[in-house]
Amino acid sequence: MRVIVDGDACPGRDLIEKAAKERDVEVIIYCSIDHMIVSDYAEVRYVDKGSQMVDMKVSNEAKKYDIVVSQDYGVAAMVLAKGASAISTKGKLFTNENIEGLLFQRHISAKVRKSGGRYANPKKRTKDDDDKLYENLCRLIDRNKILCQNEN
């Protein structure tokens, strides 16, 4: 079991690494060659620049019981289908029960934008977002460790 991070524009990386390090779990951060990420704990892997390159690498790399941190609903849907877990950088857990609705919401939002409509900008990151990310990631790591051990 690993924590795999969609590292392009990923707030909260320090909290992700802290939660994983405290639980002795490997962290892999994927980012495009356009970004320079330095980490004392995580392994940073670079992919070619280009639209969706990091998303595809993260999706392809994930396997059962891995935990993927991404803001992308499409990435979350793909890794959930592989038996991995997914969490947003604000600590929202993506599940088989909520992902379809989130993807539909994304589709509707894209249609509105394409027709000239607008949605409000995302809210600024808060301390509550940080707390939720850390707490939910810790719970997810603990749960997946147990599931992984029970299977082996």
Lateral arrangement of strands in the main beta sheet: 3-2-1-4-5-6
Radius of gyration: 15 Å
Question: Could you give a short account of the major beta sheet?
Answer: 6 strands, mixed
Q: Give the helix proportion (percent range).
A: 40-55%
Question: Which descriptor suits the 3D outline?
Answer: globular
Structural class: alpha/beta
- Estimate the strand proportion: 15-25%
How many strand segments?
6
Q: Write down the overall mean pLDDT.
A: 89
Low-confidence stretches: none
> How many separate helices?
5
CATH architecture: 3-Layer(aba) Sandwich
User: What is the terminal-to-terminal distance?
Assistant: 12 Å
Total domains:
1
Elements, N to C (H/E): EHEEHEHEEHH
CATH class: Alpha Beta
CATH topology description: Rossmann fold
Set down the secondary structure blueprint.
Layout: E1 2-6, H1 13-22, E2 26-32, E3 43-47, H2 53-61, E4 67-69, H3 73-81, E5 85-87, E6 93-94, H4 99-114, H5 127-151
Parallel strand pairs: 1-2, 1-4, 2-3, 4-5
Antiparallel strand pairs: 5-6
Helix pairs in contact: 1-5, 2-3, 3-4
Pfam family, one: DUF188
InterPro entries: UPF0178
Protein name: UPF0178 protein SAMN02745196_03062
Tell me what the structure shows.
Helix 1 runs parallel beside helix 5. It is built from 5 helices and 6 strands, in the order βαββαβαββαα. The chain is an alpha/beta fold and 152 residues long. Strand 1, helix 1 (13-22) and strand 2 form a beta-alpha-beta unit. It is globular. It has one domain (2-151): 3-Layer(aba) Sandwich (Rossmann fold). It has helices spanning 13-22, 53-61, 73-81, 99-114, 127-151; strands spanning 2-6, 26-32, 43-47, 67-69, 85-87, 93-94. Pfam families: DUF188 (PF02639). This is UPF0178 protein SAMN02745196_03062. It comes from Clostridium collagenovorans DSM 3089.
